[in-house]
Specification:
Blueprint lengths: L5 E6 L5 H13 L3 E6 L9 H8 L15 H8 L2 E7 L1 H8 L6 H8 L4 E5 L3 H5 L1 H12 L3 E2 L3 E4 L5 E5 L3 H18 L14 E6 L4 E4 L2 E3 L6 H12 L3 E6 L11 E4 L3 H12 L4 E4 L6 E3 L20 E3 L3 H12 L8 E8 L7 H12 L3 E6 L10 E8 L6 E6 H16 L2
Parallel strand pairs: 1-2, 1-3, 3-4, 4-5, 8-11, 8-13, 11-12, 13-16, 16-17
Antiparallel strand pairs: 6-7, 9-10, 14-15, 17-18, 18-19
Helix pairs in contact: 1-2, 1-8, 3-5, 4-7, 9-13
Bound molecules: cytidine-5'-triphosphate.
The site of cytidine-5'-triphosphate has 13 residues, from helix 11 and strand 16.
Length: about 425
């Protein structure tokens, strides 16, 4: 049975406030006690009656209400987790400055519980140096500020600033509640298996530009990498997510970096891998790039012959990191567990697994996740069938089902390898 936790759900004034109502439902369905603290301005979007009815508790915004209960101190002191969903630029600025001019910011000063903020605002406001400085201050103090999702915003525009889906915030919040339960020795036996571990995950497909409008790319959707990140977060890991081109936004709760070409991905993966415990290379990296990039669009012409594209090799990111780790020796900071992905097709002479085993040996990584690819297999679909091969001779693990099922199997194999 899940232990009942006391959650303070702060809501500030953004259009995404309606999603906080759905999040509140998820906490209630899980059996937790939730005190909602809206800012005064947020009541323009969703009123007190909604919060009281959904939480089953009285809801106040000011320190001058229910003064006899010393609400502004009590709620923070008693909380197991404080969330602000959505967190506006304004509330983060006030929190960063240590202000206590309403019940929500007062509660933040009075709590020792983990604090999780999910910002939502227009891209310009999110990227403004003032907001970024406030986010950096809050993070330095231990507040978990989730990077906003990228997608449709209020009105016609889209960009970074979208509130992640309630289920994603719920999953992330649950890792804190589980950790707290574990450290209190309550109904959870042990801490989550990846608590305290840093996992770097690359995802999506690289693009190699030919001219300003064309590129060489691949069919990778990034969905398997996203599922891996969620599975790692759910087991308590801190996730550094390096996104190449994907057809879906990165999950909430990761430290996000972006890369477009293989060489950009190499730089970003290098940075993320140093200091991480595990690297999972699920990105589909282009092995070749055009030898030449043309500054203007390649045009057809009747006077000249049709162009021939010459390709040159891209760096093999995974193999280079394995080699760098070997030269670093014991004092190095590269992950001791490196997981590769092998997109393979079988042929008349060799099976998919034969090619997988040869690739595991060639790449020198600890685990290789082999999947069969083809026109309608794996790329862009929600299904996956994988075999996880281990360099230490452990028995191969097969998993089939959704990409979430495959991701869980890979994360289980990572947990097993870390404890071997
Ligand atoms: N990989 C990489 N850098 C590259 C190519 C691949 O880091 N330039 C990584 C992938 O992210 C994956 C693993 O290596 O984890 C295997 O990728 P795959 O494309 O299957 O293998 P290749 O080495 O490119 O071999 P080939 O395409 O010749 O089968």
């Amino acid at each position: 049975m899940v232990a009942v936790k006391r959650i303070v759900l702060g809501v500030s004034a953004g259009i995404a406030v309606y999603k906080a109502a759905l999040l509140l439902r998820l906490f209630k369905e899980a059996g937790h006690h939730v005190d909602v603290i809206p800012t005064e301005a947020s009541l323009e979007f969703v009123g007190l009656a909604t919060w009281e009815a959904l939480s089953g508790n009285p809801v106040r915004t000011s320190v001058f209400e229910a003064v006899d209960t010393v609400n502004h101190v009590r709620l923070g002191q008693e909380a197991d987790l404080v969330l602000i969903v959505p967190a506006t630029a304004d509330v983060m600025a006030r929190a960063a400055a240590g202000m206590a001019n309403d019940l929500l910011t007062g509660t933040l000063l009075a709590t020792h519980a983990p604090v999780l903020m999910a910002p939502a605002m227009h891209t310009e406001m999110w990227e403004h140096p003032a907001t970024q400085a406030n986010v950096a201050t809050l993070r330095a103090r231990g507040v978990h500020v989730i990077d906003p999702a990228v997608g449709r915003l209020t009105g016609k525009d889209s960009g970074a600033g979208r509130l992640p889906e309630p289920a994603e915030i719920f999953a992330l919040a649950s890792t804190y509640l589980n950790d707290a339960a574990a450290s209190e020795g309550s109904s959870f036996d042990t801490a989550l298996p990846l608590a305290g571990k840093i996992i770097a995950i690359s995802a999506g497909g690289t693009r190699e530009p030919l001219d300003p409008v064309r590129f060489l790319g691949n069919r990778s959707s990034g969905r398997q990498g996203i599922a891996l990140a969620k599975a790692a977060l759910a087991q308590g890991a801190q996730v550094r997510f390096i996104a190449a081109h994907m057809d879906q936004p990165a999950p909430a709760g990761v430290e996000l970096s972006h890369a477009s070409t293989a060489r950009e991905l190499q730089v970003a993966v290098n940075q993320a891998a140093h200091g991480a415990d595990v690297l999972i290379m699920s990105a589909a990296v282009a092995d070749f790039r055009p030898a030449e990039y043309l500054d203007s669009k390649i045009k057809k012409s009747d006077e000249h012959a049709d162009p021939v594209i010459t390709l040159v090799r891209n760096p093999d990111i995974l193999a280079m990191l394995v080699a760098e780790r070997a030269t670093e020796g014991d004092s190095g900071t590269l992950p001791q567990l490196i997981v590769g992905f092998a997109a393979e097709t079988g042929d008349a002479e060799h099976s998919v697994l034969d090619y997988g085993a040869a690739k595991l040996a060639r790449k020198g990584c600890e685990l290789l996740v082999v999947n069969e690819v083809g026109e309608n297999l794996t790329f862009g679909t929600d299904e996956n069938s994988i075999t996880i091969l281990a360099a230490d001779g452990s028995a191969p693990v097969h998993a089939a089902g959704s990409k979430d099922d495959a991701a869980r199997a890979v994360i289980d194999a990572v947990i097993a390898a870390l404890t071997r």
